[in-house]
Structures are given as structure tokens and as C-alpha cells.
Amino acid sequence: MPPRVAQVTADTFRELSRERRLLADLDDEILRTQVEVTQIAAPTGAERNRAQWVAAEFGRAGLRASMDEAGNVIARAPGAYAEAPVVVCAHLDTVFTEDTSLTLRREGARIVAPGICDNGRGLAVMLVLARVLEWCRASFARAIEFVATTGEEGAGDLRGAKFYLASGVRPFAVIALDGAGDERVVNTALGSRRFRIAYRGPGGHSWAAFGAPNPVHAAARAATNLASLRVRGAGRSALSVSRIGGGVSINAIPEEAWLEIDSRSTSDATLDLLEREIRAIAAAAAFQENERRIPTTPALTYRVDRIGDRPSGQTMGDAPLVVAALEATRLVGRAPELGTASTDANAAIAAGAPAIAIGGGGRGGDAHTSHEWFDNTSSTAGVERALTIVATMARLAAD
Predict the structure, then answer these.
(1) What is the number of alpha carbons within 13 Å of residue 162 lying toward its C-beta?
(2) How far apart are CA 92 and CA 41, in angstroms?
(3) In sequence order, which residues have a C-beta less than 8 Å from that of residue 52 and are 6 or more positions away?
(4) pLDDT band at 307; cut points 50, 70, 90
(5) pTM across the whole model
(6) Same-domain check for residues 217 and 322
């Protein structure tokens, strides 16, 4: 299969010369679309305005778009094709709050604005691919379905992608467009599990009730032990205490304290191990604080809630989708590299579909900050690469 896929990719690249020239001609329009969509606030959980705008743009491209119960925008060209579609997705949401200023500024070749890359670029490239691929779909064996997903960032926990993939669709391949770049092919899904540990006690005056169990002390003890935890297991892993809080006054023993933990790994087995360690440390911190309390005071209680679960996994390097992506990267004059990240592709891989994530061309940086930037120089190569990958997969017949 891989040698044939490489040949199909090369043939597709050559046969799409007219479409690739068109993409070059549309470069300024793609950038305008990117800027325009970036100006529509879309915090995780509040993507509707941006979703409606994207649906209208799909309509302009000749595709009928609908919105599902998760808020995803789904567009598919009409026609009779093989059952399993090629899915192109890009996430709608950003990490920024509704009141974040989205004013753009230019710094030389760079455009600076929150979300200009992540995921203004991915959405703009998905929309232009929908438009161009609609013109040349007669040569495809498979439908191409475009999905603008909700809840990809942070606490969204890949909500839109998970919902879409649980709705019964069985993709032949999934290509997630996320940010800028034209060399990296993300084929390894970085899994994560996120937890909130909450401690509760009777509280009281810091002098009069001294000796009552202190939830902040327990949370601090848990955070210290988690920070000292030696991360073990297969694959690369990481664990961070990312947020902590509690208490209402400097002269009061708090009634509640909490901390949130982000654990990540390329191995689900390691995530299982980390979860056991987190739960054990949470329990030990509660036990140790209760051991110190005055016996006549009520005991401190605790609970551990899993607040996020992103599956890990991998689309193997010799899978047709990865072979096509690597070959397409070479064909646009770039040196391909395989990578690891947490994207909508995680949900697809967990659902059993071959999936990758790629950038939409150009260069970018400082993602998830107010000074996020995008440089459109030589960005056409990345758009051509995306076109070639998607068209190659749509041309492949079922095994």
C-alpha cells in the first residue's frame, strides 16, 4: 500500500496543477478570511457567532452546511461516493475570553492578534479547500466532509470532535488543520487527563479554631508531593499542578481549598499510572492533615474529579494517510517531520480512524498569548500540501 500511496500522491500533485495555481492566486483572499474570522470572538463554549459565520462561508463555496447538537458546523458536497468520507476539520474555539481585545497590528511581515494562528489559520485554509475541492471533486472516489469543531481548547476536552465521531460517521481519514506551518505532520496523539482535587473542612477563626484541619494545608501538601512525583511509565510524560486556590480571609481557616492537575503522556497506560498516583497523593494529604487536627474537630474530607480526558494514540508512520502527508510535504519543497501534539486528531485516532494534524502554511508563534503572530511569507506551500493530502485520500479506493 505505501508505495502505491506515494505514487497516487505524486500523480495527484501533478494533476492538481491548475488548482495549486488558483490557491496561489487566492493567497491574499485566504489571509483576509483569516483576519476576518479572527475578529469574531469564540471562547471555548461560546463559539456560535463564529460557527454561523463559517457556515455562511461554506454556503458561498457551494456546500450546504448544518450545525449539530455540539455546535459543530458540518458541510459535505452532494453526490454518490464510497461510504467512508475523508474528513477535514479545524477548531472554532480560542483560549481567550469574550472581552479580549482582538485588534490586529502589524510588525513588519507579522500580523499580531490573539488567535490569528490558532485557529484563524486553520479555519481559513479549511474554507479555501472546501471551495477549491468542490470544483474538482468529479475525480474523487470519496466524499470530503468539512467540520468546524467546538471545544478543542483547554477544558473543552475535544467536545466537538468527540461528539461528531460518536454520531455514527466512520471516516476513511481525518486531517485536522491547526495553526501555521508546512513541515510537521502530527501523527502521535498526546493524551491528557485533568483533575480537580477539593478539600473541605469545618473552617473557623485562625486563632480561636486553631487545630481544626486546614484544607489549604492539605492542598499545599498535595501540590508539593505532586511536584516531587517522579513521572514513570512508557513514552514521554508530564504532570503539572496548574491552578490552586481557596480561603476567603487571611484570619480564617478556610472551609475549602482546591487544586487542578494536568497530566500528559503518549501512553494511556502511563496516564492510568499517573491517575493512580494523583488519587493516592490526594488521599495521603487528607490523611496527614486529619492526623494533625485536634480530635474534637470534624475531619477534613476530599474528592478527586476527572475534569478532562484526551486519549493518546498514534497513526503509524507507514499508514497511507501519513505516507501521503510526508510525500506531499516533500512535493512542496519542505522537509517533513513527524510530531506529537494534542489536537482534534486525538479523538479520531481513539475512534479508530487514521488521523493527522497539520498546519495551514506560513509561520506563527506565541500561541495562546495576546501577542500571537502570523507571517504569511511563502504560505502557499502549506495550503498546496493540505490540498494534495486531502485529494490523495479522496482518490484512494477502498481496500
Answers:
(1) 11
(2) 10
(3) none
(4) very high
(5) 0.93
(6) no
